[in-house]
Amino acid sequence: MKKLGPSILSKNFSTLFPTRAKIYTKTGDKGESSLFNGERRKKDDEVFEALGATDELNAHLGLAIEHCKAANNALDTFLEEIQSRLLDIGSHVATPRSSSPEKHLERTLFNENHVKTLETWIDKLDNELPPLRNFILPSGGFASSQLHVARTVCRRAERSIAPLYRLGLVDTQVFQYINRLSDFLFVGARYAAMKEGKEEHVYKKI
Fold this sequence. Notes:
Elements: H1 6-16, E1 32-34, E2 40-42, H2 46-71, H3 75-93, H4 102-107, H5 113-126, H6 142-166, H7 172-196
Antiparallel strand pairs: 1-2
Helix pairs in contact: 2-3, 2-6, 5-7, 6-7
């Protein structure tokens, strides 16, 4: 059997597996990065702070989804849709409303109906929960506790978006969605604890 030399192997490999874009671009090596509209900004700019917080929130939701699936509490369906909406919010934030071309603004519009959807979900879950009579501490099992973690990260994402909202760089419905999302995650955490029959720890003054 004839042996194939390195050059032939390399040629065959490149034919079977065409070159694709590399993960790293090196364009951020000097401390700047690009927004969706092509604008270059420092990596510690407020826009990137908001994008980072939103991305971190999405990662925490990914872990929450796995816990919810294991617990079979049906919350994972809600969370998976929310993950996609957070990507929409990321695109919106990366396209400052005051300095982006109209075509970019249109592509990154965030539908206000997403806020109404969250409100419907909150009411649905809350109606199944016992009345809240005490301050709840993060607890109630893995799914519930992870949702509480996501809630706190959501609040940070909201704080990072707030200055952009005040400057008119993001639309009202985006800020509303992030605000409602922390409420949903709080109710979702309580719902997860209830579905698993786990005790929610309450604040006790000493």
